[in-house]
Amino acid sequence: MLKNRKVIITGAASGIGKETVKQCLLEGASVIACDINESSLHELKRSTDDQYVLHTYQVDVSEYEEVAEFFEYVKTEHSDVDSLVNNAGIYLAKNILDYKVDEIDEVLDINVKGCVYFSQMFGSKLLQNQRKGVVVNMSSVSGIEGSSDAIYGVSKAAILGLTKSNAMNFSPYIRVNAVAPTMVNTDMMGTIPDWRKEEYLNHQLLDTPVTPKDVADTVIFLLSDKSKHYTGATFDLNNGGYIR
User: Fold this and answer.
1) Element (H, E) at 200
2) Residues carrying an active site annotation
3) Residue 54, beta-bridge partner list
4) Residue 67: CB atoms within 10 Å
5) CA–centroid distance for 177 within its chain
6) What's the CA gap between 119 and 123, in Å, rounded?
7) Distance (Å, whole) CA 96 – CA 212
């Protein structure tokens, strides 16, 4: 489904990002996997069969200059890149009353600014040559319904606004959509307060847990030509919880 496509994926070394890398490769794409954790990137590379085309690049998405250097590398080595998955993010599982100013900055810098930086530079690269492309942004149900961690909720709501705005700014060449999963079985889920987990589950109409592969499958659909008429949309991957 993604043959001859080249995809940048941030936060690629663990959780949803790692599964998205795997599924993109299985679908025939070549992937540039970005993450701040160099050792995890090395492990990702080691665990990937040589038949697949996987490149890795260590980058802190919250640092503008590092992102700019990455896109210089892309310009030189991967000028045919046509897809971007903005997946990098952190969740500190804190009450807003307990947040320190540096922690607020950290969450917003990674979850929001990182997505802005990658979107800006990716969009600039493709639009200057009027090339077709796709962006998929990772939001969350908490960006729609609120979060027990208010700063995280703010960051994921911002991604929804960025998605709609860039769908307009990048049209008609680049499609931009978002995925808003409910709780997903990753390391992050273990830090969500139990009362909030129960609220999510009580709102869901289906009782099948959402896995990283389920999220990756939705991302694959949005990257593919099967979603060619979708842009500015948010896909609620939440078992029917919080229907809107």
Assistant:
1) helix 194-203
2) 152
3) 31
4) 23
5) 10
6) 6
7) 27
Instruction: Evaluate whether 49 touches 70 at the Cβ level (below 8 Å).
Output: no
Cα separation, 66 vs 114, whole angstroms? 11
From residue 122, alpha-carbon distances to 44, 83, 144, 175 in Å are 24, 9, 26, 12
pTM of the model: 0.94
Q: CA 154, CA 146: separation in Å to the nearest integer?
A: 8
Single-letter code of the amino acid located at 128: Q
CA angle, residues 152, 157, 162, in degrees to nearest 5:
125
What is the C-alpha separation between 24 and 19, in angstroms, rounded? 9
**Omega prior to 172 cis, within 30 of 0:** yes
pLDDT tens per residue across all 244 residues of the chain: 899 999 999 999 999 999 999 999 999 999 999 999 999 999 999 999 999 999 999 999 999 999 999 999 999 999 999 999 999 999 999 999 999 999 999 999 999 999 999 999 999 999 999 999 999 999 999 999 888 899 999 999 999 999 999 999 999 999 999 999 987 766 665 667 777 767 777 778 888 889 999 999 999 999 999 999 999 999 999 888 888 8
By DSSP bridging, strand 83-86 and strand 6-9 are parallel
Question: How far is Cα 123 from Cα 170, in angstroms, rounded to an integer?
Answer: 7
